[in-house]
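Exercise 7b. Backbone tokens:
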């Protein structure tokens, strides 16, 4: 699900006591393995280069990327997700969204934690319209979840405690194709 045009998106929202900060990056990539005709399992892996998170303010970028996420030492945050739905007879229909819950193991700053995430998946059979984005059959994945920084041994310096939230909301939106791009 690597989009060379960088249209995939991860957004991190910090709604702290005195201010809200939104950091975004288009440097998110990954893969999804599903059978659209018989959705018994869901396997996926996503990565974000945290060095590319941008708040629009250089001081906030330094606080988030360098001081909280230690991006020079740990440049990649990763999620590995697996779900099993055998016996549920799920099928991905063209242009119809389905929501699936999956256990995801997140690795941030070399700390791993697993918790359930709900994914909204939409499958698009290749069409003239879909080829405006990418060739091949497409899969759009969207998810939102809360990320508690302390779960990943990320502590907020006391001087920033009212400016950076202890729990951040994360959103991811990606579109990928089943076609090899050589």
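Sequence design result:
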């Amino acid at each position: 699900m690597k989009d060379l045009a960088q249209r995939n998106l991860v957004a991190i929202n910090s709604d702290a006591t005195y201010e809200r900060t939104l950091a975004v990056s288009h440097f998110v990539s990954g893969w999804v393995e599903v059978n659209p005709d018989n959705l018994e399992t869901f396997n996926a892996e996503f990565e974000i280069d945290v060095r590319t998170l941008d708040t629009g303010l250089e001081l906030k970028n330094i606080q988030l990327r360098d001081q909280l996420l230690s991006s020079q030492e740990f440049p990649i945050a990763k999620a590995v997700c697996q779900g099993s739905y055998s016996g549920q007879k799920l099928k991905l229909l063209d242009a119809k969204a389905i929501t699936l819950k999956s256990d995801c193991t997140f690795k941030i700053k070399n700390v791993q934690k697993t918790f359930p995430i709900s994914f909204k998946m939409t499958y698009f059979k290749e069409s003239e319209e879909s080829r405006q984005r990418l060739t091949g059959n497409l899969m759009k994945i969207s998810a939102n979840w809360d990320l508690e920084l302390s779960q990943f041994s990320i502590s907020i310096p006391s001087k920033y405690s009212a400016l950076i939230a202890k729990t951040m909301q994360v959103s991811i939106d990606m579109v990928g194709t089943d076609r090899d791009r050589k």
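Instructor comment: The first strand starts at residue 9 and ends at 15. The chain has one helix and nine strands.
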